[in-house]
C-alpha cells in the first residue's frame, strides 16, 4: 500500500519536472530518485507526515534536489559516477587525513593552497579544513557558530578560494572535507535576527519559549556541555522576550528539526558545499539533532532518521560525497550513526572513533592496555561500507567516555579511575609528566575533560623542560606509537595539525578575550614555519617525529591488510602492557599483519605461542614492516622496547606481495 502512495506522488512530481526542467539531462538523477524515493518519502513521512502541508513539503524537497543536481559541475558528476562504480573506494588504506585550522596552519585559504606540498610531503591526502564559514567577529566557538552558511569568513577567503582549493586537491588526488554545523546557528545568523525581530516563521526555526515552563522541564534531564562558560541550556533574549534553547554556548541557537523548513534549508546547504567541491562533509554534533522532554536529547531515534534522510537525499543528487558523523557519545551509541538498524551504512559512512581515542589515552596514563583491550572487545560490530575516523588528538577536549562496565571489568572503580586520568594528564598526579588542562569541569556532577597538545600530554613538554634525553626519546617513541595505532587500526587516520612536528601547548590564546575562557585553544596552534624547517635537521625532535610519521604513512599505504573491511581481530595476550591485534589481508593468505604495542616504560615480551597457535609465524622469519628487520627473540618470546610497537609480518609472505 505504502509504495503506491509514494509512487503516485513521484509520478506527479516527475510530470511537473518534465515540463519545468525540459531542457536538462536528468537521466541519472531520475534513476537515483526512483531508487531512493520510497525511503525518502517514508523517512520524511515519519518526521513530518502529520502535517497538513506534508505533500507540498515533499514536493519542495524534491525540487531542491533537482536544482542541486542541475547546478552540480560536470567534473563532480563524473567523479560521482566513478565512485558509484568503485563504491568501496574510501575503505582503502591509501587515505590519510589531517584536520587543521586554515588560519593557524597557513593564514588563510590561499595560504593553505600554497602549503599543500607540505601535506603531500608527509603523505596526507585528505584534509579536514576546520570551520571557515562566516561567523561572528568575536567569540565564535572556533567557527562552530555560523552566521551565513553560504559564505566564507572574509578573514579566511572567499567561496571562489574554496572552489580553487577543491580543484587543486582533486588534481593531486586529495580529498577535501568541510564542516556543516547542522545543529545550531550563531545568534547573528539572518534566521536568528529575524526571529528576534518577531517573525514567527523564523522563531519556529529555533526552540523559543515565552516562559520557563518548557525550559525547566527540559533542564531536568539535559546535561551541560560547557558548564563553566555556558551553564544551562536556555538563554533569555530580551529583544524577543523569549527563552532560546542554547545547548552549547549562549550565542549558539539550536535549530528545530521538527520544522521541515529547517531540514530542507540545512540539506540545501550541504548540497551547496558538495557542489563547491567538498568530497566529505563533517556533520557537527549530530547526536543533538532531536530534542525530547524527559530525555538527555542526545542520540534520539529521530536524530538518526534525519541523518538517514539527509544521506538518501544526497545519494540522489551526488552519490560520491561522504558524511562524517561527529557524535562523541558512548560506544554503543556511536556505532548507530553508521545506520541505526541497517544492514549496510545508510547514515554516515564515517564516524569519529572517540572510543578508541579515549582508550589509547587510558593506556598512556596507566601504562597498560587493560581497559584498551576490554573497550575494543566490547565495541559493537561495525557495518560493512562504514569506516572509522581514527584519531589521537583533535581540536576538542578529550572526554573520558568509556563504558563504566568496561572500567569495572578492568578492575578499576569508574569514578576513581576517571579522577586518576584527569590528575595524570593535568600533571596533578605525583610523578606525571602530563601538561594538560582540565576542561568542562562540572562541580555538580564531578565530570571533567582534558585539553592539551598531544606532545604536552605525552610527556614531551616536561622532558624538554628538564632536558632529560631519555624521556625525550621515550616521548617521541610514544607519539609515534600512538600514531601507528590510528594508522593500522582500520579506518581513516586523522592527524591533528602540528602533532606531526611535536607542537607543544600554546598559551597565547589567553591574550585574546574571545578565546581566553576556552582552554581548548591551548592545542589549536599557529604553525611556526621556521620551526617546521627543523624537520630537515637530523636528530631534532621535529625531524624524528615528522620523518617517523612520514614513514609510517608510506608503509600504511603499501599494506593492503590495513584497508578497512572489518578485517581486525584482537589478540588476547597474557602481558597486560601490550595491545595486540591482527589485520588480515582481504584476499592474500599470509599478507596479514600483527600490530603489537607496548605502553609500558620497560621492555615487555610477547609470547609468540599465542600467535603460533593461530597459525601465524609458524614458518619463515618475522619481519617488522617499518624497519624491515626481525625483532629480538628469545625462546619464542619477542621483546618490544618501552613505548614502541611493531607491525609484524612473515618475510616469506611479504616477498609474494
Ligand atoms: C562539536 O563538539 C565541536 O567539535 C566543538 O568544537 C563545538 O564546540 C561543538 O560541537 C559545538 O558546535 O557536539 O557530539 O566535548 O566534544 O561539544 C559532540 C564537547 C559535540 C565536544 C562536543 C562536540
TrEMBL record:
| InterPro entries listed in its UniProt record | Amylosucrase, GH, GH13_cat_dom, Glyco_hydro_b, O16G_dom_2
What are the GO MF terms of this UniProt record? amylosucrase activity
Q: Which residues form the Glycosyl hydrolase family 13 catalytic domain?
A: 99-535
Q: Which domain of life is it from?
A: Bacteria
Q: Name one Pfam family in it.
A: Alpha-amylase
Gene3D superfamilies tied to this protein: 1.10.1740.10, Glycosidases (3.20.20.80), Golgi alpha-mannosidase II (2.60.40.1180), Oligo-1,6-glucosidase, Domain 2 (3.90.400.10)
Q: What GO terms describe the biological role, i.e. biological process, of this protein?
A: carbohydrate metabolic process
Q: What is this protein called?
A: Alpha-amylase
**Organism, as annotated:** Marichromatium purpuratum 984
Amino acid at each position: 500500500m505504502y509504495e503506491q502512495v509514494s509512487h503516485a506522488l513521484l509520478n506527479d512530481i516527475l510530470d511537473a519536472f518534465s515540463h519545468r526542467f525540459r531542457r536538462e539531462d536528468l537521466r541519472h538523477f531520475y534513476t537515483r530518485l526512483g531508487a531512493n524515493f520510497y525511503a525518502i518519502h517514508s523517512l520524511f513521512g515519519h518526521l513530518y507526515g502529520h502535517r497538513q502541508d506534508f505533500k507540498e513539503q515533499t514536493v519542495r524537497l524534491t525540487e531542491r534536489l533537482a536544482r542541486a543536481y542541475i547546478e552540480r559541475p560536470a567534473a563532480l558528476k563524473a567523479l560521482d559516477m566513478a565512485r558509484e562504480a568503485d563504491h568501496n573506494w574510501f575503505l582503502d588504506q591509501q587515505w590519510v587525513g589531517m584536520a587543521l585550522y586554515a588560519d593557524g596552519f597557513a593564514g588563510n585559504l590561499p595560504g593553505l593552497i600554497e602549503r599543500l606540498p607540505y601535506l603531500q610531503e608527509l603523505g596526507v591526502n585528505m584534509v579536514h579544513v576546520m570551520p571557515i564559514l562566516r561567523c561572528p567577529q568575536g567569540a565564535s566557538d572556533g567557527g562552530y557558530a555560523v552566521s551565513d552558511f553560504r559564505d566564507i569568513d572574509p578573514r579566511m577567503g572567499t567561496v571562489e578560494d574554496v572552489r580553487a582549493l577543491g580543484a587543486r586537491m582533486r588534481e593531486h588526488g586529495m580529498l577535501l572535507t568541510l564542516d556543516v554545523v547542522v545543529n545550531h546557528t550563531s545568534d547573528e545568523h539572518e534566521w536568528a535576527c529575524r526571529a528576534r525581530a518577531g517573525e514567527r516563521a523564523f522563531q519556529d526555526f529555533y526552540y523559543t519559549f515565552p516562559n520557563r515552563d518548557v525550559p525547566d522541564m527540559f533542564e531536568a534531564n539535559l546535561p551541560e556541555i560547557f558548564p563553566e562558560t555556558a551553564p544551562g541550556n536556555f538563554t533569555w533574549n530580551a529583544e524577543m522576550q523569549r527563552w532560546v534553547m542554547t545547548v552549547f554556548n549562549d550565542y549558539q541557537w539550536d535549530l528545530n528539526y521538527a520544522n521541515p523548513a529547517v531540514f530542507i534549508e540545512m540539506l540545501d546547504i550541504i548540497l551547496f558545499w558538495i557542489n563547491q567541491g567538498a568530497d566529505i562533509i563533517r556533520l557537527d554534533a549530530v547526536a543533538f539533532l532531536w530534542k525530547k522532554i524527559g530525555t538527555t536529547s542526545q542520540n534520539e531515534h529521530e536524530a538518526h532518521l534525519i541523518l538517514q534522510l539527509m544521506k538518501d537525499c544526497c545519494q540522489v543528487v551526488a552519490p560520491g560525497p561522504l558524511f562524517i558523523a561527529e557524535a562523541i557519545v558512548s560506544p554503543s551509541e556511536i556505532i548507530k550513526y553508521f545506520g541505526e538498524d541497517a544492514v549496510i551504512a545508510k547514515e554516515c559512512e564515517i564516524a569519529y572513533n572517540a572510543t578508541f581515542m579515549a582508550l589509547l589515552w587510558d593506556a598512556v596514563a596507566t601504562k597498560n592496555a587493560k581497559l584498551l583491550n576490554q573497550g575494543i572487545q566490547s565495541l559493537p560490530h561495525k557495518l560493512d561500507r562504514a569506516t572509522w575516523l581514527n584519531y589521537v588528538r583533535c581540536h576538542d577536549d578529550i572526554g573520558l567516555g568509556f563504558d563504566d562496565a568496561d572500567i569495572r571489568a578492568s578492575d578499576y572503580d569508574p569514578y576513581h579511575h576517571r579522577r586518576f586520568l584527569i590528575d595524570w594528564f593535568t600533571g596533578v598526579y605525583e610523578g606525571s609528566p602530563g601538561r594538560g588542562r582540565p576542561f568542562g569541569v562540572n562541580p555538580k556532577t564531578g565530570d571533567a575533560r582534558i585539553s592539551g597538545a598531544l606532545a604536552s600530554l605525552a610527556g614531551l613538554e616536561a622532558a624538554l623542560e628538564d632536558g632529560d634525553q631519555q624521556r625525550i626519546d621515550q616521548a617521541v617513541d610514544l607519539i609515534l606509537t600512538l600514531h601507528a595505532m590510528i594508522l593500522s587500526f582500520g579506518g581513516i587516520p586523522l592527524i591533528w595539525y602540528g602533532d606531526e612536528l611535536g607542537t607543544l601547548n600554546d598559551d597565547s590564546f589567553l591574550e585574546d578575550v574571545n578565546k581566553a575562557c576556552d582552554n581548548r585553544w591551548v592545542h589549536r596552534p599557529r604553525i611556526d614555519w621556521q620551526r617546521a624547517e627543523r624537520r630537515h635537521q637530523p636528530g631534532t625532535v621535529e625531524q624524528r617525529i615528522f620523518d617517523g610519521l612520514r614513514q609510517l604513512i608510506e608503509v600504511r599505504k603499501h599494506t593492503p591488510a590495513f584497508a578497512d573491511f572489518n578485517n581486525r581481530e584482537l589478540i588476547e595476550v597474557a602481558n597486560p602492557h601490550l595491545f595486540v591485534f591482527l589485520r588480515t589481508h582481504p584476499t592474500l593468505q599470509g599478507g596479514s599483519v600483527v600490530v603489537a604495542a607496548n605502553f609500558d616504560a620497560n621492555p615487555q615480551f610477547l609470547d609468540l605461542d599465542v600467535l603460533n597457535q593461530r597459525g601465524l609465524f609458524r614458518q619463515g622469519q618475522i619481519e617488522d614492516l617499518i624497519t624491515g628487520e626481525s625483532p629480538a627473540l628469545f625462546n619464542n618470546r619477542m621483546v618490544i622496547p618501552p613505548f614502541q610497537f611493531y607491525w609484524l609480518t612473515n618475510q616469506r609472505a611479504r616477498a609474494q606481495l
